Amino acid sequence: MRFDETYSGNVFIKSHPTYEDAKAVLYGMPMDWTVSYRPGSRFGPARIREVSIGLEEYSFYLDRDLEDVKFFDAGDIPLPFGNPAKSLEEIKTFVRKVLADGKVPVGMGGEHLVALPVMEAVYEKYPDMAVIHFDAHTDLRTDYEGEEYSHATPIRKIADQIGPHNVYSFGIRSGLKEELQWAKENGMHISLFEVLEPLKEVLPTLAGRPVYVTIDIDVLDPAHAPGTGTVDAGGITSKELLASIHAIAGSDVNVVGFDLVEVCPVYDHSEMTVNAAAKFIREMLLGWVK
């Protein structure tokens, strides 16, 4: 695996030219092999990079510039089309290398299943890891239509490994009754509908701990993010998600990796979703990569 050049031509705005001295590594996971409704998220990472050129490099929120953060955009990981198992192996191999080199992995999806091998690799390095999860959906199924590895299962699978009490989900408004019951019975923190205030209550309890953050763009209401595979009405605003990102940035948690997934450009005719995603990634890089 080579890190002296990116896998693809376009890079996120202000990407550092070399891997070696970068603090964080941005990469795409272009996979949507298990989606149950609308495919197309495999094109998300490339389009987010393309629209990032329209971003300002400076954040009014954080008083910080992308010049201040050494991150390297490695491009999209080449994944075997239609092969979930092999794709997950490739992602984990990539992220293990990034972590071994002392860098923070920053992923762009792709369906939400791509977050699972990343979280597993981070857990190998940080066995006391907690997960903060923003999503419209619980993603706590043991399988979906008989498929064990599905975009509906990654949070259940990581919860089974790190313990449900170490998983904190926010903005949830859709899923099976059995999923919600399992979460409550097993000590998982799950906040229905709301994000910011419950998050602020939780963050002090995670002070000093390594935390992985995974954001499904459909936590936003479809009015703010129509370009996603499984839209679900009643979500939060872009302003609320930005405030949540900044709340984490201002806390004492140690963010050791993060991702943003489920952006589908084909349904994003106004490009509202990809532009919002690019801004969120900028704010996460500026706020979470110290």
From TrEMBL:
Gene3D superfamilies attached to this UniProt entry:
Ureohydrolase domain
Q: Which residues form the signal peptide?
A: none
Which residues bind Mn(2+) per the record?
Answer: 112, 135, 137, 139, 216, 218
Return the broad EC class.
hydrolase
Q: Which CDD domains is this protein grouped with? A: Agmatinase-like_2 (cd11593)
What does this protein need as cofactor?
A: Mn(2+)
Q: Name the Gene Ontology molecular function terms of this record.
A: agmatinase activity; metal ion binding
Q: In which pathway does it act?
A: Amine and polyamine biosynthesis; putrescine biosynthesis via agmatine pathway; putrescine from agmatine: step 1/1
**Catalytic activity entry:** agmatine + H2O = urea + putrescine
The note on the cofactor says: Binds 2 manganese ions per subunit.
A Pfam family per the record: Arginase
Q: Which keywords fit this entry according to its UniProt record?
A: Hydrolase, Manganese, Metal-binding, Polyamine biosynthesis, Putrescine biosynthesis, Spermidine biosynthesis
GO process annotations (BP): putrescine biosynthetic process from arginine, via agmatine; spermidine biosynthetic process
The protein's Enzyme Commission number: 3.5.3.11
Output the superkingdom of the source species. Answer: Bacteria
InterPro entries cross-referenced by the UniProt entry: Agmatinase-rel, Ureohydrolase, Ureohydrolase_dom_sf, Ureohydrolase_Mn_BS
Question: Member of which family?
Answer: Belongs to the arginase family. Agmatinase subfamily.
Q: Describe the function of this protein.
A: Catalyzes the formation of putrescine from agmatine.
Record protein name field: Agmatinase
Q: Which organism is it from?
A: Caryophanon tenue
